[in-house]
Amino acid sequence: MRGLLVLAAIIAASMAHVASAAVIVQTDSEQNALSGFNGFDTQLGALNKVTLTVDLSKSRGWVVSAPAGSATTANVAWTIDGSWQLRSDNVALGTPLVALAGAGTTMVPLNRRNGPNNFGFFEVVARGSATFAFDPAQFLNRGVTFNGYDYGQTVASGDTSFSGVPLGGAINQLQGGCIVRDGNPITPGEDFCGSANYTLTYDYTPAVPEPGTWALMIAGFATTGAALRRRRRQMPAAA
Asked: pLDDT tens digits for 171-212?
């Protein structure tokens, strides 16, 4: 009997130690139809901290031109210093920004013709990552869906600079066109212009049984032990 009580106490202490911290991690993305995040079930315990990590890779489409009979390609160097804004269906979470940056050089064939100019399409890519901490009260038994917008999708946003534009040529951003495949621009919609991935983490303290519940558990151990002891006494001795 004493041994069972000691065992029950050890189990109770172990469970209390495990209950000191726990984590729930959920993921979503703008390419996954924005399924959203489940709210924190308060029956699980006390929510201490909520963090959201955003990882971005966003593209934009451009067109560069040159007078016909001059350059047949354009070696365009580009640099991006932009912003992406986090949005959600809960206004209390605000609209923080994630910095977007990128740089590269693209060799663009000027194999299209429009009046006196030859032209070609290309895309640029900006990346960024950030982690935000939110008020846990905004997630108690309440789901949320995050979305965002790349300011660089706005024509004339001014967040991209270029060099290497052919003499007498020009460079212009495409409205909505953010991906170039086989020399042709594609307009899939801002959410699909690259990727936006979300990781939401709940850090919480699990609920622990009330003292009365522990007492019932220990009493259950004791009752079971007593029954086993009586059963052993009633068994006939081996011949």
From this structure: 999 999 999 999 999 999 999 999 999 999 999 999 986 554
**Tokens matching residue 116:** 């006196």
- What whole-number distance in Å separates Cα of residue 25 and Cα of residue 82? 29
Burial of 64 (C-beta count, 10 Å sphere; 0-12/13-18/19+)? buried
How many angstroms separate the CA atoms of 171 and 163, rounded? Answer: 10
Report the predicted TM-score, pTM, of the whole model to 2 decimal places.
0.79
How far apart CA 185 and CA 65 sit, in angstroms, is 15
Residues 102, 128: contact at Cβ < 8 Å? Answer: no
Phi–psi pair at 71, nearest 5 degrees: -75, 145
Q: Reduced to 3 states, what is the DSSP secondary structure of residue 235?
A: coil
Q: How many residues does the chain have?
A: 239
Separation CA 100–CA 222 (nearest Å): 63
End-to-end CA distance of the chain: 28
